[in-house]
């Protein structure tokens, strides 16, 4: 039996202690162990002739790895440079220390190949470490460094191996090159569950949803899927609005026993929410035993996206009431549910909660507050939140620009736009939508056309159909109906119903039956079931006193089974929003009378309070 004081056990103990220091981030103890090595040079001296060289080298490698894990890469490099003997583990440990920077990692790899030439100099760990650095760069350095490492892997005969292949695919996806990732996948002789999951996930994140689902089907014939695979396939279903496939995967999830996995449950709720199946999403939510913040945020966002604002508010109030810890993401999600008819009192309460929980430093929460106040008609409050933000991103600027545009302050929109550019923030397509809305309000058609043309010429942004619709609305507001008609027919979206609908609205306002009738005919060809076409055309005929033509249009609507969308008004009464419509039915008249009675009661209470204060 070996003596306890033998060098072999000393080296082994030292290596084990250094490994523990690295995992725990205990730099103080690690540095103390380094001092032990420094004070015993004879015992830890590295020279090729030593019989126990491999054990001494392991201790030095552990020292380099310890500094690397503690984030002290310069100390790791200093220890490495002191080593007269190095192996692949030594190089890999130092590579791990410099893997946060692609240029540093590649420079170290070149040094390794130069100083340690040979077949075994570059191994699987070396390549996966460098590839991880390329993946973390997120495409910032381009694909050229990644392609170079890929070539090195092929030349070393490791490119088709599972670990290196998986790392290559992940790096290519992170660098925005799914085609290259697919090529690597096709060249792999062997694939495991990580390989398949990386492909399913990567294709979904690259918005190649159908390919992702096709790979998932192929995978099920090759290996058993894990929870990460199911989460990735659900991401593809959510992105492609594939409700049927999502329900099928839900069945597979239950069959495989992953229905209680939070990531999988969040994915299921995301699919159902985006496909408009909120009852199914709520059922998944209610079945969760221990929801986390992400899980709660998904269901709140789902209600907001599907126009079920009241449900979002009720659920948020329920969460607060039962003591669930509210985080910034949940607050941001519920603020996204606010529209013009949302209860303003609740919005103010959420703002108070934001202040209480110190969320005003969160950019996303402040963006939500800006939009909430703007949609509730409180522009001054939006400005106050914006001015008080410690950090502003693109969405912050877009939100405040949209707030001014929504409230008809066209000149202020352009002033803020200039401030946005001066702050170094690049405008997005959403920014230009607000700018075009601002042009509509100030009646500056020339300025609006200049802005539309500048999108592609100055900012490299291709206008969408929504931008063209804004221009049509802008020209229509200015009474330039023939110009608006020509703008549609000469543009790339002449077959889009949205543009003709915008033109019809302008024709109805200016009582131009000639252009309006032409727009209506075009709209009905493109969208035969569009109620707006019939309604706007009937309004044009009404404004001109052409009652027979109006009656003919309304009769045609009834024959097609189309109904005009009922307009509604609302009022916030005693912290509750009451909506009502004008109708001749007794029931709706009774509802309106109830509202009026409550308003009278509130007015009476206020008068009584004023009298008592006067007394």
Structure, described:
The protein has 34 helices and two strands. It is mainly alpha-helical and 615 residues long. The protein has helices at 7-24, 27-39, 41-44, 53-69, 73-82, 88-97, 102-115, 124-136, 144-155, 162-174, 178-187, 193-205, 209-220, 227-240, 243-256, 262-274, 278-287, 293-305, 309-321, 328-335, 344-356, 363-375, 379-387, 394-406, 410-422, 429-442, 445-459, 465-477, 481-490, 497-510, 513-526, 531-543, 547-559, 586-614; strands at residues 569-573, 576-580. The radius of gyration is 33 Å and the shape is elongated. Strands 1-2 form a two-stranded antiparallel sheet.
| Tertiary shape | elongated
Task: Tell me the fraction of residues in β-strands, as a range.
Answer: under 5%
Assign a percent range to the helix content.
Answer: over 70%
Main beta sheet? 2 strands, antiparallel
Give the termini distance in whole angstroms. 102 Å
Low-confidence stretches: 1-9, 584-615
Numbering strands along the chain, what is their spatial order in the largest sheet? 1-2
Helical/strand content category: mainly alpha
Give the overall average pLDDT: 83
Please report the total strand number as a whole number. 2
Mind telling me the C-alpha Rg?
33 Å
Structure annotation, total helices = 34
GO molecular function: mRNA binding
Keywords: Repeat, Transit peptide
Family: Belongs to the PPR family. PCMP-H subfamily.
Pfam families: E_motif (PF20431), PPR (PF01535), PPR_2 (PF13041)
Fill in the keyword field for this structure:
615 residues; two-stranded antiparallel ribbon; single chain; disordered N terminus; 34 helices; Pentatricopeptide repeat-containing protein; 2 strands; E_motif; mainly alpha; elongated; disordered C terminus
């Amino acid at each position: 039996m070996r003596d306890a004081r033998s060098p072999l056990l000393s080296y082994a103990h030292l290596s084990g202690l250094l490994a523990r220091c690295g995992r725990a981030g205990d730099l103080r103890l690690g540095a103390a162990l380094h001092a032990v090595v420094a004070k015993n040079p004879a015992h830890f001296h590295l020279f090729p002739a030593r019989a126990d060289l491999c054990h001494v080298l392991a201790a030095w490698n552990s020292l380099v790895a310890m500094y690397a894990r503690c984030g002290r890469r310069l100390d790791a490099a200093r220890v490495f440079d002191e080593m007269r003997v190095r192996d692949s583990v030594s190089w890999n440990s130092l590579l791990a220390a410099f893997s946060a920077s692609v240029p540093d990692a590649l420079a170290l790899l070149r040094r390794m190949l130069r100083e340690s030439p040979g077949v075994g100099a570059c191994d699987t760990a070396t390549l996966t470490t460098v590839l991880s650095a390329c993946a973390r760069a997120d495409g910032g350095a381009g694909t050229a460094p990644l392609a170079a490492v890929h070539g090195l892997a092929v030349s070393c005969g490791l490119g088709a191996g599972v670990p290196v292949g998986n790392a290559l695919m992940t790096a290519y996806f992170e660098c925005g090159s799914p085609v290259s990732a697919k090529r690597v996948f096709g060249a792999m002789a062997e694939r495991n569950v990580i390989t398949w999951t990386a492909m399913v996930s990567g294709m979904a994140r690259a918005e190649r949803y159908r390919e992702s689902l096709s790979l998932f089907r192929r995978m099920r014939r090759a290996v058993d899927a894990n929870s990460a695979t199911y989460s990735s396939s659900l991401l593809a279903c959510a992105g492609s609005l594939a409700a049927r496939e999502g329900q099928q995967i839900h069945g597979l999830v239950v069959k495989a026993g992953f229905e209680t996995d939070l990531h999988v449950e969040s994915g299921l709720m995301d699919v159902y929410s985006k496909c408009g199946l909120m009852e199914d999403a709520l059922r998944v939510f209610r079945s969760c035993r221990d929801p986390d913040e992400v899980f709660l945020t998904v269901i709140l966002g789902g209600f907001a996206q599907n126009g079920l604002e009241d449900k979002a508010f009720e659920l948020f109030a329920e969460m607060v009431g039962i003591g669930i810890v509210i985080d910034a993401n949940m607050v941001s999600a519920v603020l996204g549910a606010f529209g013009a008819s949302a209860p303003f009192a609740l919005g103010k309460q959420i703002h108070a909660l934001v202040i209480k929980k110190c969320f005003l430093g969160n950019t996303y929460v402040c963006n939500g507050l800006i939009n909430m106040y703007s949609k509730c008609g409180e522009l001054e409050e939006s400005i106050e939140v914006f001015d008080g933000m410690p950090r502003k991103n693109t969405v912050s600027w877009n939100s405040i620009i949209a707030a001014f545009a929504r409230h008809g302050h066209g000149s202020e929109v352009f002033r803020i736009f200039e401030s946005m550019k001066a702050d170094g923030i690049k405008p997005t397509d959403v920014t230009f939508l607000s700018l075009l809305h601002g042009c509509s309000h100030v009646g500056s058609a020339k300025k609006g056309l200049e802005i539309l043309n500048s999108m592609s010429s100055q900012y490299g942004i291709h206008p969408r159909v929504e931008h063209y619709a804004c221009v049509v609305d802008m020209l229509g507001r200015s009474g330039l109906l023939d110009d608006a008609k020509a703008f549609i027919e000469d543009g790339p979206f002449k077959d889009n119903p949205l543009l003709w609908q915008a033109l019809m609205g302008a024709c109805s306002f200016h009582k131009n039956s000639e252009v309006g009738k032409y727009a209506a005919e075009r709209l009905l060809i493109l969208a035969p079931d569009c109620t707006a076409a019939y309604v706007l055309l009937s309004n044009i005929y009404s404004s001109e006193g052409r009652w027979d033509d109006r009656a003919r249009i309304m009769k045609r609507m009834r024959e097609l089974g189309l109904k005009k969308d009922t307009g509604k008004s609302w009022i916030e009464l005693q912290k509750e929003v009451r909506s009502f419509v004008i109708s001749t039915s007794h029931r709706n008249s009774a509802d309106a009378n109830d509202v009026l009675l409550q308003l009278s009661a509130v007015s009476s209470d206020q008068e009584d309070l004023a009298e008592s204060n006067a007394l």
